[in-house]
Amino acid sequence: MSRRKNARRATVASTAVAASVALAAAVLTAPHWTGGTTAGTDADLSAAPGDLVWSDEFDGAAGSAPNPAHWNHETGDHGWGNNELQNYTDNRANSALDGNGNLVITARQETNGTYTSARLTTQNKIEHAYGHIEARIKIPRGQGIWPAFWMLGSDFPDTPWPHSGEIDIMENVGHEPHMVHGTVHGPGYSGANGIGASYTHPQGWSFADTFHTFAIDWSPGSITWSVDGHPYNTITTNDVGTNPWVYDQPFFMILNVAVGGQWPGYPDHTTQFPQQMTIDYVRVYEN
Ligand SMILES: [Ca+2]
After folding, report:
1. Domains of the chain, earliest start first
2. What are the distances in angstroms from CA 43 to CA 40, 46, 57, 226?
């Protein structure tokens, strides 16, 4: 297991104007990436999860909406603080169950050249502190495509980002098809100074080729990231130094596919649309 701190860009966390401004400033001052890779050679598996306390298995009729008791749509085309291109919609063309037990988020290039996609959150519906939080996902692919499974503190936006806390369970940028990233952003360590690590596919294959499970094991003062049961990074209160540890509170979950942005760059002639992120389930277990 390798452990490192990567400087990297912020994930957008903003629906509030004030938070957008703050986040945009953080992002714009953080235009470099100095991260490295973590080989997927860990032999030990995550601790066995405890009782399942919540899940969405995404069972339902093809074309139906994700369960509104669990999921909100966040919509808009304002760039989300990262100069992203997509307009997030609540149209079934951008998010729907597939009838085979999956939620599919589809990023499309529309006939007028613009991009649409979807961003779903569990805010004010499903919020948890601690446990084993896992999703089984087949990510999309391509330059400028940016899928993510992540969380924000439930007090956002009343508590502005990054003081609200952000836990990125899985992010991928299309120009790194063999790599995923796990990161926390908090006060004093956000944007370029977010703390995290990356995990490289053990065979060097694209994560978009098949389903993978992306998880955190989260307990007071500690978060461990894993892919397919292989832990690859642990961050504890020691890692944030004198900065606040803001992860001892409930968080809500987010699933989205962004198109373009400072970190992933932008689609080019190699990028094919539509692109789909297929989510088999999201599960929360007690630790
Ligand atoms: Ca399923």
Report:
1. 17-285 (2.60.120.200)
2. 9, 10, 29, 12
- What distance in angstroms lies between residue 280's CA and the mean position of ligand 1's atoms? 4
Please confirm, yes or no, whether 134 is among the known catalytic residues.
no
Chain segment 188-222, per-residue pLDDT in tens: 999 889 999 999 999 999 999 999 999 999 999 99
pTM of structure: 0.85
- 132 Cα: distance to centroid of ligand 1 (angstroms): 18
Structure confidence by residue, pLDDT tens digits, 95-152: 999 999 999 999 999 999 999 999 999 999 999 999 999 999 999 999 999 999 999 9
Choosing from 127, 134, 166, 176, the catalytic residue is 166
The alpha carbon of 59 and the centre of ligand 1 are apart by a number of angstroms equal to 6
- 166 an active-site residue? yes
Residues 6+ apart with CB under 8 A from 31: 9, 192, 262
Residue of 84, 171, 176, 286 marked catalytic? 171
How many A from CA of 28 to the centre of ligand 1? 38
Q: Which long-range contacts (CB under 8 A, 24 or more apart) does 234-240 make?
A: 234/1, 234/3, 235/184, 235/195, 235/196, 239/5, 239/195, 240/186, 240/188, 240/189, 240/195
